[in-house]
Amino acid sequence: MRDEVRPAHLRGDRADIVLSVHNLTKTFGTPSGAQVQAVAGVSFDIAAGETLGLVGESGCGKTTVGRALIHLPPPSSGEVVLEGRPMSGLSAAELRALRPRLQMVFQDPISSLNPKHSIADIVEAPLVVLGGIDRRRRQEQVREMLTAVGLDPDIVWNRRPHELSGGQCQRVSIARALILRPRLLICDEPVSSLDVSVQAQILNLLEDAKQRFGLTMLFVAHDLAVVKNISDRVAVMYLGRICEIAPSAQLYGRAAHPYTAALLASVPDPAPQAKRRIGRAIEGEIPSPLDPPSGCRFRTRCPKAAPVCAADEPVLRPIGPDHFVACHFPNL
Ligand SMILES: Nc1ncnc2c1ncn2[C@@H]1O[C@H](COP(=O)(O)OP(=O)(O)OP(=O)(O)O)[C@@H](O)[C@H]1O
Ligand code: SF4
Ligand SMILES: [Mg+2]
């Protein structure tokens, strides 16, 4: 990437960047011939050992970003560079060779596991595809990985996914993703379908796995409370674009974008019995990506919107150390 076109929030000067994404777009065609711009020019990078949280409401494009990174399906345009190697233009065989470095835990733990296969076969499958490892060694590795994610291999080995709880299925998904020892793990809403008590266990498991296997992570969630503790930095997405990116503590202490502030306001009060929300929750529906608003995409719901917001689209600009916001009137 040429320096003069690099967005200010990409840290091209650092040697430890594992993943760099520049101006990623993904457009889907609809049966009526219209174009859904699910991701509309997203850039971010993740340094070795870092966890980047990617947060936003349902439909803002989080899963599409994650899937575009693993090229299932590939981005419409933009640059994805993994460990210094651009992924665009790679052949199917070259992409397959890179795949062990980059793995994804999919959004729905139960439906992402083949119901007809045993747990052992599901976790072993990536090793079979990789090839070159004999069956006895593969099964040893499956046993080790099931144990590492907190499952007893002797109990779950021959079971089918429907015989496990949601939390256990998520552990299987994590084991399947880690069996190839990836450098980068993309976790797409790994806890949102789980009970609160199980959510904490899975978050702890991911933290442990991160240390044990030296992972770098992209952690996707629609809830800022979930990403708060696990993320070093957080990127907030709205309607296909990043509107704010900052170190986790900065973002929670000083949300500059009105959308981030509204998301934080909708986090439930942690006090026991409290049903109320801490502040005024975000109002209105997210507009359709088929026809996004002109200028700032958030302007139809923003309490601070002014005429300039409809005319000029704000770009991410620095407002503090490693803190960037795309807004004409940020909360400073
Ligand atoms: N295969 C597809 N064909 C057409 N439109 C799609 C496709 N996949 C996603 N979209 C659209 O792209 C937009 C972004 O979807 P995406 O699933 O990435 O959102 P998300 O942020 O992950 O939402 P959620 O929090 O509900 O998982 C949505 O408007 C969605 O309807
Ligand atoms: S640019 Fe304008 S509409 Fe957009 S978030 Fe900022 S104040 Fe609101
Ligand atoms: Mg999603």
List the helices and strands and how they pair.
Layout: E1 17-29, E2 35-47, E3 51-55, H1 62-69, E4 77-82, E5 85-86, H2 92-98, E6 102-105, H3 119-130, H4 135-148, H5 153-156, H6 166-178, E7 184-188, H7 196-213, E8 216-221, H8 224-230, E9 233-238, E10 241-247, H9 248-253, H10 258-265, H11 307-311, E11 317-320, E12 323-325
Parallel strand pairs: 3-8, 3-9, 6-7, 7-8
Antiparallel strand pairs: 1-2, 1-4, 4-5, 9-10, 10-12, 11-12
Bound molecules: adenosine-5'-triphosphate, iron/sulfur cluster (SF4) and magnesium ion.
Poorly predicted spans: 272-279
Shape: globular
Helix content: 25-40%
The CATH level-2 architecture of one domain is identified as 3-Layer(aba) Sandwich
Query: Beta-strand percentage?
Result: 15-25%
The run of helices and strands is EEEHEEHEHHHHEHEHEEHHHEE
The overall average pLDDT, rounded, is 91
Number of strands: 12
Bound molecules: adenosine-5'-triphosphate, iron/sulfur cluster, magnesium ion
The biggest beta sheet, please? 8 strands, mixed
* CA gyration radius, whole angstroms: 20 Å
Provide a count of the helices.
11
What distance lies between the first and last C-alpha atoms, to the nearest angstrom?
A: 32 Å
What is the top-level CATH class of one domain?
Alpha Beta
Q: Identify the strand order in the major beta sheet.
A: 6-7-8-3-9-10-12-11
Corresponding CATH superfamily of one domain: P-loop containing nucleotide triphosphate hydrolases
SSE-based structural type: alpha/beta
In CATH, the topology of one domain is named: Rossmann fold
